[in-house]
Amino acid sequence: MYEFIYDYLFNDGELRSFLNDRLSYAINKIKSEDKNYILNVNMQDYTEHLVDSYSFELPVIDKENIHIQHEEVEIDVSQDSKRVFLDGSKSYYLTGTKFTFYIPFTGDSSLFKYQPSILNYNPPKGEVRNQELLVTLEGVDLEIGNIRVEFDKILSDIEKWLTWVETDIKNFNQRLDREIESQINTRREKLLKDSNLAYELGFPLREIPGTPKTYSVPSKRKTIISKPSASTQPFKPEPVLSMENYEYILNVVQNMTMVMERSPSEFKNLGEEAIRQHFLVQLNGHYEGAATGETFNYEGKTDILIREGGKNIFIAECKFWGGAAILKDTIDQILNYLSWRDTKTAIFIFNRNKNFTNVLTQIPNIVKEHPNFEKEIAYDTETGFRFIFNHPNDKNRKLYLTLLAFDIPK
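The chain above was modelled as a monomer; its predicted structure follows.
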């Protein structure tokens, strides 16, 4: 006779509800942050910190380090159908043995509590203590073979339930990543809009008494990405180029390239300087003379610069394709041109007498080797690429680097 001790696992409410609550906590955390923290913090770092803090790590059982403990116990055998008793209303005790299996695991222990979306109605029994799962069997006249078979069955059931939990957790973690990024961007955009409106009114902002000046790293429930630090001083908006205008400028450049393709004889002998001048003519037609060439900016000169209100809003470089070394130097060059306020930049690569497909294959791999590279983002252009870079003088500030490659007439 066996008797199982402890409560059922995976039986304390729905996992779906628990995960929805977890997502709500993450969203409320974003909403409760100081506005200046949201405006000043490195958004990528803050997103990674929150995802790491609120995501779940699936429990993984460590079968190699299972331990066992046994002891004598008095067991009530009155309900044993194999035994006959004169008075069935009384309890009858025999000395038996209790085996407790200590099963270590990694991951979040709370996931042993809740019912996954896929389940049956016979969950395994056990108890969670810190990072160990306890399974207990006890009985009278136990045999080693039967004990092992019974324990292996219980362990197999637990692992089966964990595979069902895994499906829910993978979906949740992916949803969490998307939702956190969306919520941060939504709040940041709202705060930026409010700050710009307030700034344009022309009155100094009044500080709220008692506003904290620093933020501390939260205590860790596991090895997590620390909360990124950021200034909480009142945020002062800078003139910036909207994404809509950024795309518009790049579209003007791409349209100019179509002119080259349609009139190859006019462009086949042009060098970098002449091609750049054609781009400047087109851009000045759209931005009333705001586009300049070889303008001094920060630590060097840049090929194409668009200014608004006396401040730079767009910087670009023009280069003929000459291999990885030249592209790396060009990236370094354009980063050196950037002042702190510059966040929209581009490199225009002209290919001549080369295998254009091979050039397009090399570009993203070369860019990703740069120490300021953070990530590549989707860009719906067949011969273009877009990346997020850390600003060379402030890792909390991000910038867009778009590379457009053009196969120009030979």
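The first strand starts at residue 2 and ends at 4.
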